[in-house]
Amino acid sequence: MTDSIQARFQSFTQTHVAPLASRHDRLQCIDPELVGQLAAQGYLGAIISEPYKGLGLDMPTFGLLNYELNKSCTAVRSLVTVQNMVGRIIERWGNAEQKDQWLPVLAAGEKIAGFALTEPEYGSDAAGIRTCFTDHGDTFAITGTKKWISFGQMADLFLVFGQAEERLGCLIVEKDTPGLSITPISDILGARGTMLAQLEFDACSVPKENLVTNLGFGLHPVAFTGLDLGRYSIAWGCVGMAAACLEASVTYASERRQFGSCLKDHQLIQALISDMTVDIKAAKLLCEHAGRLAETNDRNAMQEMLCAKYFAAGMVNRVTAKALELHGANGYAPEQGIERFFRDAKIMETIEGSNQMMQIMIAKYGIQHG
């Protein structure tokens, strides 16, 4: 069953995503028609439950979806990740009205969502964010700035995190709310199709009914519900990206000839391929283990997601660098896709928690739980 589902993911990606990957990178946006195709397949609501019109995929299967998407395009995988992060938060922590209003339209791709946590001065230190929710009776007035928000240029609504009397909260904010302005961020190193934006809130008035759960629960557990899923998705995406580089490298080494023989016959090239293979297999096993634990709500699932994300992000940087070496000058040209993956890989060591934050969190968990 899993093999047939993965084959369907693979067929869709090769047919619809791969041909557009370099264009997404070059134009720094995702093709709107592809967004519609993702929605038609149900991928924008992949883990939203079936009563809300989602696919209701389990965590291991959702991991395979991220793997296949990122074998072609980081930006497309990121869109699916963010949409499902927001969907999961609303489904787990929203009230009945919020679920009924938002989950079906998110699952159908009728609304695109953004996750607005990071600020210009607060990234890893999420608890220190300074966006302010001021109580005005039936509404909150939002004042502050969010930065590096994936798909902020195209999102129809945002989950916005802020402080209300030193209690962290989360509000659903629609893009056309007065007082909200959106500025595109372009020309970043990698993942250039993720349509980043900066959000400015100037006394932006939002009904209190848009508050997701209670004040004081904004970071733990609301934000971490999304962040855990994001880290898991990124880890699988890294494995997919690395696998694509390995496949391209094996093909290139089998066709390219130097000194009278194919590259694959040279032992130093074989060393590169063996190192890439072992790295990918190790990262994949970590992802599979994390997915199994998450599906059963095991108390160690968060720790394993951290481990998977930390190792996979480092792994994909090692693998893309080796693939670039193996391809030589040809690897620097956009036709192969290797240089794009090389740039995208570096982003994976920062988003949803830097490598250093992963190390700190993994160590703290290990110390606390032995």
Counting DSSP H or I runs of 4 or more residues, the number of helices is 11
Helix and strand succession?
Answer: HHHHHHEEEEEEEHEEHHHH
Which value, in Å, is the CA radius of gyration?
Answer: 21 Å
In the CATH hierarchy, the third-tier topology of the largest domain is known as Butyryl-CoA Dehydrogenase, subunit A, domain 3
Number of strands: 9
Would you tell me the structural class of the helices and strands?
A: alpha+beta
Please outline the major beta sheet: 4 strands, antiparallel
CATH class wording of the largest domain: Mainly Alpha
Overall form: globular
Give start-end ranges of low-pLDDT stretches.
none
Give an account of the 3D structure.
The protein contains eleven helices and nine strands. With 370 residues, the protein is α+β, with helices and mostly antiparallel strands. The protein has three domains: 2-107, Acyl-CoA dehydrogenase/oxidase, N-terminal domain (Butyryl-Coa Dehydrogenase, subunit A, domain 1), CATH 1.10.540; 113-210, Butyryl-CoA Dehydrogenase, subunit A, domain 2 (Beta Barrel); 218-369, Butyryl-CoA Dehydrogenase, subunit A, domain 3, CATH 1.20.140. The strands form three sheets. Strands 2-3-7-6 form a four-stranded antiparallel β-sheet, with no helix packed on it. The radius of gyration is 21 Å and the shape is globular. The mean pLDDT is 96.
